[in-house]
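User: What would this chain look like folded?
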Amino acid sequence: MEFWFSELHTPNVKLSIRVDRQLYSGHSEFQRIDVFDSPEFGRFLALDGYMMLTEKDEFIYHEMIVHVPMAVHPHVRRVLVIGAGDGGVIRELCRYDDIEQIDMVEIDPQVVEVCREYLPQTACSLDDPRVKIYYEDGLRFIRRCEDLYDLIIVDSTDPFGPGEGLFTREFYGNCFKALREDGIMVNQHESPFYDQDAIAMQRAHQRIVESFPFSRVYQAHIPTYPSGHWLFGFSTKKYHPLRDLDEKRWNARGIKCRYYTTTLHKGAFYVPAYVEALLRDVEPER
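Assistant: Here's the prediction, encoded as structure tokens.
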């Protein structure tokens, strides 16, 4: 008998992956947590029935949410990561020797515990001495912060359930306040393709541009995410993601990636016309 994991992307579309076995299933205070093993994508994590990452394609998401801002900001020393209980963002950040402190805020300690045990590929750097983990709500944590961080990475789940507060106007305004005068915020920005996802993406973008003087969207292609077309937000007080990209400096670091390059970095900000139109519809007149 064959077993399949299926996730509805819309009422009319679903992604199904054949599963060899279920490695873990449990309920935390916040959500259901499952880990499966599959022949095509390796191990994968699902929260409340929604796929969060797979061993085969997680590198795309984590490289693009970390290395894009790191190639732009010239001196990141202190980073705040909100969400990211699987550890993939932390793994990529820990490749930078000049980062001095990484604060990670994750609402659900059980996600971290499960990923440590079953997904060591992503959770491998959570014990780095520069990393301090706070188990609390990101919205509550950020309210206490002012002028502290060079970079904030919001690696949230979708805008419902435990991650809902991380898509509010209040949250983005507090992120702006928590950044230093030249700080950058990067967030996962949902997909623009299916109607309901596009609405969520527009809502997030509208709230971000109300809080930041400069915000742009960039893209990556992640096979297991709805439509495979995924967006990230790049919001900043000072730096432009293309004009301030220092290719020579970043390439001199010798960081070997499987997806990110500084050439791809430039192309990622040239989004399709339909995405430009969706974003323009919710941007205020300047």
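The chain has a mean pLDDT of 94. If you want, I can go into more detail on any region.
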